[in-house]
Specification:
- By secondary structure, chain A is low in regular secondary structure.
- Chain A has six helices and nine strands; from the N terminus they run ααββββββββαααβα.
- Chain A has helices at 48-51, 69-77, 173-176, 250-258, 329-332, 387-391, and strands spanning 86-87, 92-93, 99-100, 108-111, 134-140, 143-144, 148-155, 166-172, 337-338.
- By secondary structure, chain B is an alpha+beta fold.
- Chain B has two domains: 85-320, no CATH class; 338-410, no CATH class.
- Chain B contains nine helices and twelve strands.
- The chains are: A little secondary structure, B alpha+beta.
Amino acid sequence: MRKTALIIGLVAGIAVALLAGLGTSSETASADAGPHVSTGSDATPDKCASCHRLHSGQNEFLLKQAGSVEDFCFACHGNGGPGSYLAVEEGTSYGDGAQGLRAGGFEEARIDTTDPNSARPAPTPIGYAVTIGVLATKQEVKSQHAVDGSAGTMWGYGVPGTSGAGISNELECTSCHDPHGNGNYRILRSVPTGSDAAGYTIPDTYPKAAANYTTSNYFNMNHDVDGNGVGDALPGALPLGATPAPGQSIFVDTSRWCSQCHTRYLAQRNTVVPTPVAGSVDPNASRMDSGDDIFTFRHTSAGWGLNSSAPSGVPGPNYGKATFNNRACITCHATHGSNASMPGKPAASPAPATHYSSRVPWPDGSTINPENDLERASLLKMNNRGMCKKCHSAQ
Amino acid sequence: MSGKLVLVVLMAGLLAAALVSQGRGGVALADGGPHIATGSDATPDRCASCHRIHTAETDTLLTSGPTEMDFCYTCHGTGGTGSDLDVQGGKQRSNNSALRAGGFDFASINTTDPAPDSIGVLGTAQAVTSWHTADGTTAGTLWGNGALNSGAGPSFTLRCSACHDPHGNGQYRILRPIPAGSGATEPANVTDEADPKVYSTTNYFEPGPVSGIQMSSWCATCHTRYLASSTASSGDAIFANRHVSDGTSGRSCTKCHASHGTNAGASGTYSSVGYPGGGRGTTNTAESRLLKMDNRGICIKCHTEVLALTVHALEAPAPTPAAVMLQGDADCDGKVNSADAFVIVRDVAGLNGSSACLAAGDIDCDGERTSLDALGILRYVAHLSVDQPAGCPPIGAARTVTPSRGAETSSPTVAPSPTPEASAPSARGATSSQAS
């Protein structure tokens, strides 16, 4: 597997559940409630003024407070949740005590990035043995989607064969989320700003109970369908040979959405056991030559495969080999930010010390600290690329 | 009979004559009735309708008081008998229709109207929740008045005649080009609408037969720092970034605000926003700020569906009549076509219409509208050359007219196209097809 294949930058908003009650109610509010207007159907919305001042705005968006869009969003969604349970700045929900937000946070997160639990090789009974726990104390993130409006790189943008590793982009909260609401999952824009994509709409049909904004297991990103407070089973077997419909799988939906910006990261499993043919090119398939000079062979990331071997009606997960329904962007990456770091392996466990994870260059070959970059974490949920072993436990 | 009794009888007769002259039961025009338009009439028979030179009850020699507003209400109040226009109750008496500007005590704006492009009229007037306090005794704030970073605005005690010239002046609604107390140095003329004037409305979302550009400029003589042509920073600490309000593309002050008063409420959680520079009103409803819809619902009259920060519904010019005065656009429809030539020909023939943009029909800038102007427009429509003197705005360019003297200025920039421009093709539009 190429080193670059794991660098999947996500621009999803899994945990930006925007609450309505502004900290005064115990109910979980959906993103389209509160000040975030969904549609123009309400003639007297009483929401515009929650954010805007028409004649005394303090920036070009006529927001009532000066500073960046990120600053303004944090006025509600910042540390302590001053205006919303969902403190995306610190990756915490205050709806029912301090809980970890599913997508992590932009400054801190609560991901147990050293959780040793992992899957075991077949014939492990079907079940959810794999976990990534939640820390009681938040930690500083080592990588995050920089949404402060500064220029970054939209890694993997463009169809396979596109020159370069990506394009420069100035990301803001509103690049991904529509603050006025749009009826989409997590008010994600159908077309992320800057992507110029054709658009992919994730319907807002997934459960919105509190447990779906937080998590007790950062590995299980599925939703709490039965309302018991934890994510439920992966969706049943997805259609074989047909494209899953929007709303059928959060894994498929989010991977498609993320890849509007990170286009060349999206790869689906085309065969149970890939058998690349020399010289053949498939821009859609995982572990096949995509035809791209940089993102040449990619790990499955589409959350779905054309030739799923899972028996129909049998949910995952056998994270080892059989199904592909969980191999999505959000399986490995925390969309807002992760506290995972890349400290390398100490010399004593066993010797010698290694620093492979902290020396992975960016897709364009650049590095920050080529010898040891602890923050080269790429939004991954486990230290030292420990995500790999969550599934590939026997390897 | 004593001389005093004779005088009383005489004055009563004059008052009765004045009332008759206003056409009770008919429509009294702002420059008709007792409001004198010019001084050219040597025997106007109007002064005495309001003034008593030796027996006045106010310092402005009015026949009654004690306040100026009290006096105005003797004609324009709910119990007034001297005018068809009841600005106190927000009604036009003759047909019980709703005044466009609302009223100072009552208004009939359907402040919950869900229709996307209209704000209807209530059958029964409601008490206003915010109004321009024009009683001449209550000190208010002239919000946004003054230079940059001069605070939220100075204190000011407003009265009716601060805005309206009771002696008439040929302006729209006899508005003073320089409102009293505004501190403005440049007049803001507002072209009067042609007869017959229409004071009422069936749709409060339409600001009326007046140039939005002129109207906003006029409002800004007092509310200086509210006038904005873009959302870029003004440099002011309080009025830093402002919604476009200069009347372009229909975004004028009176599009959102009722200038006399509104019955809109603002009792919602977020709509009680506080005043510029800090401080809050005494009640939530006082936060309605003369807006025409409850709870800032006026916003979504334009910003209806998906409100992406980068996609504003109003980026495309709205087809609001008279919102953009284009050279040659005599009918205010935002376009220059043969209909404008027709309007000019009718005007030349003395068949006045109701367009506020007739002045824009003077395409050769000679100070009058003639058949030659109509011909020039027809040539323009036919893509033929049009002779215009140097300095005269070309047909289709923005034009500001100051009708009192016929002088005019033209904007160096061409006005927005009457039709929205197509979106530029994306240079990267095909790159994400793989993900879909």
